[in-house]
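RETRY 2/3 - previous attempt timed out on the joint model. Re-submitting the same 678-residue input unchanged.
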Amino acid sequence: MGAPLLEIENLSTHYVSAHGTRVIRAVEGVSLSLGARETLGIVGESGSGKSTLALSLVRLLPPSARIASGRLLFEGEDLLRKSEPEMRRLRGKRIAMILQDPMASLNPLFTVGDQVAEPIRVHERAKRGAAWRRALELLKAVRIASPRTRLGQYPHEMSGGMRQRIVGAIGISCEPRLLIADEPTTSLDLTIQAQYLNLLRDLQQAHGLALIFITHNLGIVAKMCDQLAVMYAGRVVEAGPVRQIFNAPAHPYTQALLNSIPRLSDSRRRLTAIDGQPPDLGMLAPGCAFAPRCTRVMERCRSLEPPQATLSDGRKVRCWLSVASAVDGADKVETGAA
Amino acid sequence: MSILEAECLSKHFAGRRGLIGGHRGVVRAVDGVSFAIESGQTLGVVGESGCGKTTTAKLVLGLEQPTAGGIRFEGKDLSTLDAAGRRHYRRSVQAVFQDPYASLNPRMRVGAIIAEPLVTNERLPASQVRARVLELLNLVGLPGRSADLFPHEFSGGQRQRIAIARALSLSPKLIVLDEPVSALDVSIRAQILNLLSDLQAQLGLAYLFIAHDLAAVAHMSHAVLVMYLGRIVEYGETRMLVRAPKHPYTKALFSAALPSRPDERREDVVLAGEVPSPLNPPPGCHFHPRCQLVMPHCKEQDPLLTETEGRQVACHLYAAPPRAGLAAPQAAVDFGPDRP
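RETRY 2/3 succeeded.
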């Protein structure tokens, strides 16, 4: 395997309040990498920083946010060193994004054809006719029935599932290398969600895309992803291959999360609930952010933040329990952020 | 014993008039649905948008009047109740809604929110109301001092606990739970589902549980009702239905449910197309345009609910005994004995 397509190195994104009095560390010291054609799932609850991480990758953060540190290597180039015009040439062309709400991400005043053709006209300077012909092909690729008619219609004339597929068509219109999907199916019905996920997987194979799924739904990760990163309070607490994490979660949060979800296969089992609530990022106590809810909490968890430990199978875990086992065994511990 | 029985329940709405003002369509939001909720048990309702599950909940809550058919509560037909009987019914059936940010009045203190049903329905001295509020808060796992706070001081999961306490205040027998956890954080959902199970065991409550998360419905429910475009397609005991769904739509729905682990493989039945408009549902079996096992007579005849392998299924596949290599039957087939 060559160099990864995307390497996130020690990325921190903070929101600063108007007078600089309050800093919210939405993303803190995140390192992840993703190879070409790979699928990475980023899982977390609301407020865990997963959407801020996604927006950091394309540098579409609101003005109150700033990227405090880190490097974002995409095809070997640091995205954080690029100028805004350079970023604009990249977005939609090399890195595309699908947002959660297809109602909000399509413009109600333009036809679907115009919106699917827009990135092609902007990035490839194609003429309107040529761009519309490509748009027709794209609508066929996302399996929209009678695509020629649909091109001339407006978003309100279509169902939610169809709109989401159109957003998908816009995403792949310039054959990006990386597609970031932020909660792409939350507004869809179950059978439509299954259709859409299968479509994304087919597109990935056909175009050799790398995919990042931002979601709170572990089922989507189980179905779609090769790699998984679990976020809690701005940190990646566990990252590694999906199967390994599902079969033997190392971080107590990942364990608790997997146990708390009802399953179709053993439906009458009592759920193991996680006590307490996700923390307020503006008022984080010292130590591990999960400590107040952790069933295996130790003395030092409350005072010292655990460093990232690498387990023998290559998995990265931020927990003192893993640090202890890493010291005993062959696993190694990387000391905190450089 | 059934606490609530719905028989041939229907609710039709007049559709919007066309631009030219011609024909008015009728949306059969709920179309001849019969089910029973057992006392102390949970009936789960699943289906996609437009299948009629929310309208069914509204009919049960008495927020909509049925177009045809009726509901019997504790053996009494609701349409024949006098004012006192209706008051008793409304006290006995309560609801918890999806969004605890919208269902609690931000200008009322939590104590007043929980006490409101008591104040409007019972003449109790203030001290007894207060005592009951504290008791309810304790029941849903919130500290007593919560009574003096406002909803914005609570997280989503805690607000849903407040909504549950309010629903419990009149000691109801049935609670309609419309997507009670889908607005909550993943790590909080299990807390609320466990609380609901505990309350059911403790107070002998019956639930009508509506959700699109199949695993959550399967976890909570004793029986499951699967709806499609206003009609029941399959209805039976949960475990049996989850393990071996019969109706092609139920099969597809359960196959579309996301796996709980990466190595879990399901029979992959991906449906083509989308749910048709309820204003103009397909003739015959509403599901036939998306069904992979469609037969010619599915397009003409409505399938009736038939008892098959311990559950009810509305599908022509199970209505007629399979006759090898024969074309579709010409006339209506024998649908077998009606259920008792």
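Chain A is about 35% helix and 20% strand. Closing ticket.
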